[in-house]
Amino acid sequence: MYTLPILALAAALPTALSQSSNSETILGVYMFHRHGDRTAKITAPANLTDLGYRQVYDSGSYYRSRYIDSGADFRISGINPDAVLQSQLQVSSPIDDVLQNSATGFLQALYPPVGSELDAEELRNGSTVTAPMQGYQLIPIGVAESGTGSEDSTWLQGTSDCAKAEVSSNEYFVSDEYRRLYDSTRDFYRNLLPVISGMFSEDDATFENAYEIWDYINVATIHNNTIPSASLLTDRTLFQLRTLADAQQFALAYNASTPIRAVTGMTLAAQITQFLNDSLSTAGSFSGQRLGIQFGAYATFASFFGLAQLPEVNEDFTGVTDYASSMVFEMFTNASKTDYSPEDVFVRFLYHNGTASESDPPTEYPLFGTGENALAWNDFMENMNAFSLGDTGAWCTACGNSTGECAAYVNDNNDDGSSAGSALSSEESTGCSNGVSPAVNGVIGAMVTLAVVLGLEALVLVVFGLRVVSKKRLAQGAGRVVGGGEEMKG
């Protein structure tokens, strides 16, 4: 049986950071948050459970006490403590029930009902209107569209729409590492058929479905009163299932030799820097942006972790993040609240695996191999911009996309030789220069991309004797996802 080192992000992390000094001013915060506990992905549609609702609500309560309460040690400068000011808060989530419901549950605790003193409004005619649910605060959730996908999707790049990222992730399924793990774990997965036969056939019980199998069993161990052949699920077996899923998912989300595989982390990096930059520029305005929150997938965590060199700090960053995990970017200054320049501004990165709390707060980690927990603003921006993709033209070039909205950028990319960040190879960051019109280039690009993807898929099918089965059959437990393993919103 193949055994991996422990990768779960739980125990071996450094101690939590010390409290903010009195001279420190938090200027803005951006947070990326995973959803709470849900039903299994293979029994789509996935739904947020009551446990998951509690997890994200408790997380919202913690971050309220950290950033919003009047007496918070890390209170964001100028943020409204009780009644939400919509212009100060930016919240987004993909169009997905689990993620949007998680965002809603989190916000219910972040800005709870205002209570009887503030939940009534007097109209001109002298009558009084009382808000429902003791002044429940309605906070809009925007749609996060870049690199997001659906919670029912089982594969990261299947919803990224980035052609080169899809090709890169597919390459993993013909790699020596994948072949070794696939062959060495055949007996391990087949021995679990008495547990999973209701959803996975004998052909499906392989390392190819490492994440789906672990996810199905993990949900069962949390919620099911009875599990078929439960005696097979020893602590060692559960550990093995988790570490195999960790290894597969990180390999699909990040690869140092082909960084475009981490395209979701690249787009997230651009969203982080854009929000913090906007927050810095409006820090003196009462209505300026203060707190940005995005709910998304564990795959995006993994992609960003790889790009930011966090596995070099702790190998646990190569594991699948737990439900309700959060990573946070705090922008702060030790200078005067009203008299400072960008040179006085710093950014620190914090992460917590699972639900954060007062007794178990998030921890600081150094980014980009610097060894520094607090990076000067300009250094932070330089490192993030080295791999971020926030411009449509740069994204199209890096991904090799030339159809749809990318068709308009084909000639532009050729003329100016723009690249998508120094982290990308020259092949990934240069466009075509063939003198063909954008429309024809689009058709050619689409055909080439399709040929590459189909070629790799065919190779996978031949090498491993796999068969393509529809997602509908998979949801019914009769099929298997080819190339599956990554939830874009996991």
Automatic annotation (TrEMBL):
Residues 1-18 form the signal peptide. Pfam families: His_Phos_2 (PF00328). The chain crosses the membrane at residues 442-466. InterPro entries: His_Pase_clade-2, His_PPase_superfam, Histidine_acid_phosphatase. One of its GO terms (molecular function) is phosphatase activity. Keywords: Membrane, Signal, Transmembrane, Transmembrane helix. It comes from the Eukaryota. Belongs to the histidine acid phosphatase family. This is Histidine acid phosphatase. It comes from Saxophila tyrrhenica. The lineage of its organism: Eukaryota, Fungi, Dikarya, Ascomycota, Pezizomycotina.
